[in-house]
Write a structure and sequence with these properties.
By secondary structure, this protein is an alpha/beta fold. The chain has two domains: 7-166, P-loop containing nucleotide triphosphate hydrolases (Rossmann fold, 3-Layer(aba) Sandwich); 211-319. Helix content is 50%, strand content 8%. The radius of gyration is 21 Å and the shape is globular. The two termini are 37 Å apart. Residues 316-320 have low confidence and may be disordered.
Amino acid sequence: MPLIGHEPAWAEWRDAIAGGRMHHAWLLAGKRGLGKGIFARDAAREMVAEPGVPQPEGMHPDVIVLSHPPRDEKEERKREAGEPYERKRNIPVDSIRAMQKRLTTRPTLGSRRVVIIDPSDDMEKGASNALLKSLEEPPAGTFFMLVAHRPARLLPTIRSRCRTLRFAPIPDQAIDRLLMEEAPEADAAARAAAVAAAGGSPGAAFGFLSQKLGVLDTLMQKIVAEGDADFALRGQLAAAIGPRPDRDRMAATIELARARVASMAPGAPRSAIPAVADAHADLVNLAAQAPIYNFDPGLLAMQIGGLLASVAPASERGNG
């Protein structure tokens, strides 16, 4: 996916480097799908490169990237073989401790090393506490880049030690132009639905198209417009999601529901604002919990449908 909207972030980052007193920890904050992780990797390679020192293609020895590791030894063997593998739901403390051991050595090719944690808001509590020690006393020449879709989930003590680099949502028109260029097979109606569901995130827009969420979007719009007193639409929603959706599809479904509820806020009557706000908050919490807990897909679909129904004009909160 081509990246757009990163010009302000690059300007702030390069101004900081040129200033000569680079902060040791950065928090890259913004909604999912804006390309923050790609920015972090590109910026890290730029930072560790030194004049006259050849830089390797592919993985860089002075750029350490921590993300969700393989779920178990079987999945680890798949990763080593270059095959698709299942990941753990969180970044465990063992990953942070292994990284800290590497920091006891000097950088390989130059004087700087960058540690990227993507996404940092998926660290376990023990991992967050372990990372805090490194942020408090960073080794010389070591810099941290913490990618966060939900910065509020990070410890306040971690946030306070980071300089925040914010990534703003992308205008709808820019996302639509990007979809026209990169997904020409999508018709105007599909693009419009993807843009509306994306909420300013190009990644979410492409996910909408790749996950074929058009049917889900139609059902969600019907639920928020009409309610679902007999649970029939929720049943259709569960069937459309599928009996065994993967993590990406479930995350895209919850984000689509959140975007649909959020889109109601500007035109909602004052009396409906509390229900819209509550449903939106519940969907945000659900998005955070879904990767952690083993929800039954059918029950999760019913919960999503209930939250959508709760904002319908004729619905009552208790019906959800």
